[in-house]
Amino acid sequence: ICTFAINQYDIQGELAGTSWEQSSFYLALTSSTCQGTCMIMDEHLHPLRRSWCLFELLHSMLREEAESSHLSGKDIKTTSYE
After folding, report:
1. Rounded distance, CA 40 to CA 47, Å?
2. Average pLDDT, stretch 53-78?
3. C-beta separation of 43 from 7 below 8 A
């Protein structure tokens, strides 16, 4: 989501003067048109070292629990083909 919802070159500008609940990232994640999330893992689990990725995972899990009939859920993929 952050690829499309946040100008990653201006994070301060994206969040300036607002709470995280008003960020474009959170609004996109909680939008009624968002049907799920997908996290791509590498062999070093780098996404789990990024706060925004953990934020997305947490809110995906919370939303999945609260709206299980609407949200397709979260999906975690690896880069390994084995």
Report:
1. 8
2. 74
3. no
